[in-house]
Amino acid sequence: MTQTIIDCHVHINGYESLKNIPLDERIKALSDTMQANNVDQAVIISSYKVNEERPSTSQILEYIKNNDNIHVVAGFSIDNHDGKNTIEEYRKYLKDGKIKGLKIYPGYEHYYPYDPKYQKVIDLCIEYDVPLMIHTGDTYTPKGKIRYAHPINVDDVAVDNPELKIITCHLGNPWFLDCQEIIYKNKNVYADISGLVLGDFTEFYEKYLVGKITDFLNYAGEPKYLLYGTDWPISSMKSYLNFVSKLDLNDQERELIMFENSKRLFKL
Length: 268
Ligand SMILES: [Zn+2]
Fold this sequence. Notes:
Elements: E1 6-10, H1 23-36, E2 41-45, H2 57-63, E3 70-76, H3 87-95, E4 102-104, H4 119-128, E5 132-135, H5 154-160, E6 166-169, H6 176-185, E7 189-192, H7 203-220, E8 226-227, H8 237-245, H9 251-266
Parallel strand pairs: 1-2, 2-3, 3-4, 4-5, 5-6, 6-7, 7-8
């Protein structure tokens, strides 16, 4: 059976294979990798930071405009001092349907996701009925403070904003159990499975994670809360597809996780 695939979590920041190459070539690398792996659509998430290696949301929008299978979720920074990636700018993009959601980066920025400073991001997501992606779990940098990134903090946001749709990124890795409780308890919370490995899965780690995701599905009950994403170029698209092929899912469950859930949530 041929399958439609949406990768709801990729980056085009200048790391891994995208180091020191211009933005148009990074988009081309993404597009080529998608094609090579039969991935139909992808969602690029812009960084909370803007610098030479991390393009702004407006730059990304400019460069992807001829790729209608590539979408954008805009990263937001509390500590933004250069006037880029602002709420006013994002409101305009949301009004024009140019961005499909917003993302905050607790842990990288040292604030809890329920910090009142994030409320304007939450309100904007509710107003335009788009999901808020929240980084959860390990930050892969010693500068991150992981207590802010623990998935348990997402519960406060979910309870206090019942109309908000939340995607906890990376399944709260390595706090899978805490993440699955948040999803089970709150009907407005989803999770993506991106970024669980740097590069390729080893056989051991793949087996370990198949177990974790199986537990997750058994506990949270429905596959409607899980979204396929990779974190490419940090994780390999090919290795990820191989990994999810090992999950024991029926056709309908697979369709939800690989495609339908993202299509519905991001309105793709
Ligand atoms: Zn990511």
